[in-house]
Design brief:
This protein has eleven helices and nine strands. The chain is α/β, with parallel strands linked by helices. The strands form two sheets. Strands 3-4-5-6-7-8-9 form a seven-stranded mixed β-sheet, with helices on both faces. Helix 5 packs parallel to helix 7.
């Protein structure tokens, strides 16, 4: 009985017992409720394959999807003074920063990189909403200034992906002062004759929409992205009226002239390449490279004979 109990039964149980499935293999769409396999979702850039719902995407994954071959070089951003106001609410500001850095693996709420997109050199700045709601901080201001300066130095266009809940309250007036700073950075690009393209993603609100997010030469948004300054509830309470359906969504803003395009994330790179090359007065983008045809001896003789007839 010991042999059966100690060996046979555990062996049978291991063969037929239910195996645990890792929790991160499937993601539930927060719009239609479809369970999406993680690899399929990642290949589709975090866009639901069932309802086209655009789910959040990490800033670094965004850069990988934009640049050719996912290859890019990060642009150095000057580090600002940490916790200049010695702010404390339920937690110290320095502790919140540490938690956000541990959670995201990034220094702050914006990444700046340079590389090629459709064989066209570009500078790309991406706001990361997962880092304290993408809030506009002194670091974000430094990042946009650094991106603009690098674009002017290399004579490349700047593409900015916005995603924020507004200015960072823990930095007070210093966070709000990034609005005029970033506006001047955008003006640097305009004086240099370089394109500045903004892609507004969900959500883009607060002081960000009152500054650099709405100053692009071309304004593009992802489908159903929330874009606005004040919240809908605040506006309703202020004007005492019910707002129309879809107010502050990308499609509504497109219909009312606030945007130039609403483009799916999976089609965004191709559209950006076309717009950048057009604004830079370059030739149309090459869709694909084909190897040069090999000329055989017979083909060479035919070409020579055709030339002699001419």
């Amino acid at each position: 009985m010991n042999w059966i109990t100690n060996y046979v039964r555990p062996k049978i149980n291991s063969l037929f017992s239910r195996r645990e499935v890792p929790d991160n293999l499937w993601t539930k769409c927060n719009d239609c409720g479809t369970m999406l396999f993680h690899r399929e979702l990642a290949d589709n850039l975090n866009v639901c394959t069932n309802c086209d719902n655009h789910m959040p995407i990490h800033a670094r994954d965004r850069l990988t999807s934009i640049f050719d071959g996912g290859v890019f070089v990060e642009v150095d951003v000057p580090e600002p003074v940490s916790d200049p106001l010695h702010f404390r609410d339920q937690k110290r500001y320095v502790d919140r920063i540490k938690e956000a850095r541990k959670k995201t693996g990034e220094k702050d709420a914006m990444l700046v990189a340079e590389g090629e997109m459709g064989r066209t050199g570009v500078i790309v700045a991406v706001q990361d909403f997962s880092f304290m709601g993408g809030s506009m901080s002194m670091f974000v201001g430094n990042a946009i200034v650094a991106a603009a300066e690098r674009a002017v130095a290399t004579k490349r266009p700047l593409i900015l992906f916005s995603a924020a809940g507004g200015a960072r309250m823990q930095e007070g007036i210093l966070g709000l002062m990034q609005m005029p700073r970033t506006t001047i950075a955008v003006q640097m690009l305009k004086e240099a004759g370089l394109p500045y393209i903004v892609v507004l993603t969900h959500p883009t609100t607060g002081g960000v929409t009152a500054s650099y997010a709405m100053l692009g030469d071309v304004q593009i948004a992802e489908p159903n992205a929330l874009i606005g300054f004040a919240g809908a509830r605040v506006i309703e309470q202020t004007i005492g009226e019910k707002l129309p359906e879809g107010f502050q969504r990308a499609e509504y803003l497109l219909d009312h002239g606030m945007l130039d395009r609403v483009t799916k994330r999976t089609d965004l790179k191709e559209e950006l390449v076309t717009i950048v090359r057009m604004l830079m007065k370059q030739d149309a983008p090459i869709k694909g490279d084909l190897p040069a045809p090999e000329i055989t001896s017979v083909a060479a003789d035919e070409i020579a004979a055709a030339d002699d007839q001419k």
